[in-house]
Amino acid sequence: MATMKDVARLAGVSTSTVSHVINNDRFVSDAIRMRVEDAVKTLNYAPSALARSLKISQTHTIGMLITASSNPFYSEVVHNVERSCFERGYSLVLCNTEGDEQRMNRNLETLLQKRVDGLLLLCTETYLPSLDIMRRYPTIPTVMMDWSPFEGSSDLIQDNSLLGGNIATQHLIDKGYQRIACITGSLDKTPARLRLEGYRSAMARAGLPVLPGYVFVGNFEFSGGFSAMQSLLALETPPQAVFCGNDAMAFGACQALWQAGLAVPKDMALVGYDNIELARYMTPPLTTVHQPKHELAELAVNVLIQRITKPDMQQQLLQTTPTLVVRGSC
Description:
330 residues
């Protein structure tokens, strides 16, 4: 494989001149530029991205650690993150934790060893990244996406899940439903706890009781919504409406209703959370809380790049604002 020295020798110039031509960072006469470009073509020379990154101490690469899930929310967030990185001249390296702590920490160290300029973390695990690993790379900027609490100085971008749970439940109350249940995600996860708190707050404000068995802890997956709805239907007094902590569980709940011979919204009203792309294609289309995934990705990438260029910047704790998308499931 040809090197920069080979190009310089063939063109009859110095290696620094070759570098200036390739990077276009200093004036070089047209005649010399042509000789260098001809030598590059003749030798089929490809500049080394690794060598350049070592020289300028930047790779223009961002690492992202994410938990694989059947929930389309995560793939939609990754899509928006990758697009935001591309628009800013950065490449994205994605690693999946598979929900395993050992794999999470191994992938974390792999990303850091590859000299990524910064890290985005969007994981659903209850455990945190190894502090030993993080301490070995103290200068790597990190942004947590909707994952807290975290013992560290990382920037944090969160959805206002408390508000989201509140407006979802309030919509059902405004529609005249009184027996309203909630299928929540695992309560060791901050968004699940806050969405449940928003549900309880709206119910209390309206003077409506949360009946026994009306709060079912799911798992933010399709299967969790399916089994939760089966349990709710088995109650002596089933609910009239259900707030599901995310759209995936709302889809599972809808399937359980269909198998029971019940229809949405005639026999049971549903409200989801996230506004994934599939929500508009459910039958009937799902009323849901829109979590601005594009804004979440833009904020996370922008804050991370700011942190890369300004390491001493004050810690950022930012929230996106959810809104209600009314469709046909209520």
